[in-house]
Amino acid sequence: MSINGVCLTAAGRPNRNRFSVEIVPETFEQTTLGRLRHGEKVNLERSLKWGERIGGHFVLGHVDGVGQIVQRRVHGKSIALQIDAPWSVLQHLVPKGSIAIDGVSFTLQKLSGRRFTVAVVPHTARNTTLGEKKQRELVNLEADVIAKHLARLIDPPRSYAAELT
User: Fold this and answer.
1) Could you report how far apart the first and last alpha carbons of the chain are, in Å?
2) From CA 32, how far away is CA 29, in angstroms rounded?
3) Pairing label, strands 115-120, 78-84
4) What predicted TM-score, i.e. pTM, was given to this entire model?
5) Which residue intervals of the chain are DSSP H helices?
6) Residue percentage of the chain with pLDDT more than 90
7) Residue 79 belongs to a domain with what CATH number?
8) Is 152 strand, coil or helix?
9) Domain range for 95
10) Among 139, 143, 70, which Cα is nearest to 105's?
11) What pLDDT does 16 receive?
12) Is 164 a member of any domain?
């Protein structure tokens, strides 16, 4: 189960409308889950089942960093979010590439310095928490998994490469 873009294992299901998860300390430290308030809305998504149709970018629920919304602009019925991101995410972004924000997949509109911009279409604004997000709020970010694998193949970390030789 993905909660705000964080892949978690459903450890129990006390009834039809509830499930429980077990979270390790690192998950609280590396994501926004430790900052959730009681009753706060979250984005939920079930895992893809083998053989199902894939209709979008690959999102694994493996958060690469936490970003901060630095600007929120309304354009008619859509919203543009500009997000300040850490290097752990930025190094894998390309113009018109993909990014997951709180588990929701987007195409990058603009990439400039430490920031990127995405457009939240009306359907996404209505059906996810991103339509309600405000300036200065924190969000979980996941860079494109293919970009991460390519970067690792092309330029493996020096310490890791030394261990292999």
Assistant:
1) 39
2) 8
3) antiparallel
4) 0.89
5) 25-30, 87-90, 122-127, 145-154, 158-164
6) 69
7) 2.40.30.20
8) helix
9) 2-46+63-154
10) 143
11) 85
12) no
